[in-house]
Amino acid sequence: MKRYITLLFLTVLTGIVYAQTADDALRYSQQHYTGTARSMAMGGAFGALGGDFSSIGINPAGLGVYQSSEFTFTPTMEMRKSSSGNLNDDKFTFGISNIGYVAAIRPRMKSNGGWQNFNFGIGYNRINNFRKSSISQILNSESSMLDVFETNADGFSDNQLEDKYPTVEYLAYQTYLLNPQEDNPLDYDLPIFPGEKMNQRKTIDEKGYMGEFNISFGANYAHKLYIGASLGIQSINYKSTARFTESTLTNSASDLNNYYFEEYVKTTGVGANLKLGIIYKPNQNIRLGASLHTPTFFSMEDEFQNKMASHFITEDADGYSNYSDKTDLSSYEYNYRTPMKFTLSGAVVLSKKMILSMDYEFVDYSNAKFSNGGNDDFNFHGTQYDDDNILLDPEANDIIKSSFESVGNLRAGLEYRVSSAFSLRGGFANFGNPYKASSIDESYNIYSAGFGIRQGNFFFDAAYSYSDKDESYIYYSAPDGFGETISSGTVDLEDKNHQMRLTFGFKF
Question: What is the pLDDT of residue 488?
Answer without folding.
Answer: 87
